Amino acid sequence: MKGYVFHGPGQSAWEDVPDPAIKEATDAIVRVDAVTICGTDLHILKGDVPEVRPGTVLGHEAVGEIVDVGADVRTVRPGDRVLVSCITACGRCRYCREGMYGQCRGGGGWILGHLIDGTQAEYVRVPYADLSVHPLPSALDSKDAVLLADIFPTGYEVGVLNGHVRPGDTVAVVGGGPIGLAAIATAMLFAPERIVAVDLAAARLEAAKRLGADAVADAREAPEQLVSDLTDGLGADVVVEAVGVPETFELCTRMVRPGGHVANVGVHGKPATLHLEDLWIKNITITTGLVDTYSTPTLLRMAAAGRLPTGQLVTHTLPLAHMEEAYDVFGRAGDTGALKVVLGGEQHQEVVPVEAA
To answer: What residues does the Enoyl reductase (ER) domain cover (predicted)?
Structure first.
């Protein structure tokens, strides 16, 4: 089969790799129908995730069909159409028993495309299949469903739920990439008074408006002042950090009101300054986290009912074999306007930007 293989920083290729096979009785083999690319994959290619060994097939998000299962798998069988979660869960360790699947100590957590071969291939082996794949409603097409493997649960759990968004809140989302946009879309479920989106790219701010942001701000133009003006000087009730650089984290701590929440979602590669000399007196709650995907079944039901705007985040689609082109498009998002690039799916086409609504 073919897969997209990491060979070291700056080196990768769509090439022949061995077919996956059942190794444990809890495994499933999935024929991949649709995949997408995550910003974390770009970090891997830059050499920022040293745990990923050369020779690893990348990717941790997919939709496909079960073609084989181990003897202990009970919830799916060959022929089932499933979502492959970005998080693998053993279901038995202390963290899995608490629903913290991202911290699994039994051989799960984020392993696909990280510690074992991932989903950007024609077939993928999924350990602990009973808890790590989800049967898909027939009403949900592959292009929409694949966004529920990672970005929607991440934006919802690590951003909206960790931030304790409530009706009437002012929510600021710093970062208008796919995760930030998913946080905006799912924050809307809690009827906030207003959502403010902050980013550097005009195209991403326009996307934020389409998904429900009431106000947008260029990150270079004192967005904390806009938030202050909108809240009579109080600040935002919840600020979601969805970039992962020191400047944006520090911006979030300046935008939050006393008693508010900063929910950090961004993947940080450098230290950020925590200004406790200003924050110690403000009753601020700061949360961090890797997605656990406990919300995936709920989000799947909502997407099937048309309550989540998943399709609005897909800007480009390509055939699965065009993986190298897809990485180029996604890696140059500032030039291409890419949000999510989906490969495969029920309708294949050459790479074409989706027109703005």
So the answer is: 8-343
- 173 and 195 Cβ atoms separated by less than 8 Å: yes
- pLDDT for the residue numbered 355: 43
Range of the domain at 262: 152-287
**pLDDT band for position 345 (cuts 50, 70, 90):** confident
* pLDDT digit string, tens, across residues 185-198: 999 999 999 999 99
> Which is nearest to 17 in space by CA: 69, 73, 55?
55
Q: Is the pTM of this model over 0.85?
A: yes
What is the amino acid identity at position 180? Answer: G
In the chain, the number of structural domains is 2
Give me the mean pLDDT over the 43-63 stretch.
95
Residue 88 confidence (pLDDT) above 80? yes
Q: What is the CATH number of the domain that holds 188?
A: 3.40.50.720
Of 241, 268, 287, which residue constitutes the final position of a domain? 287
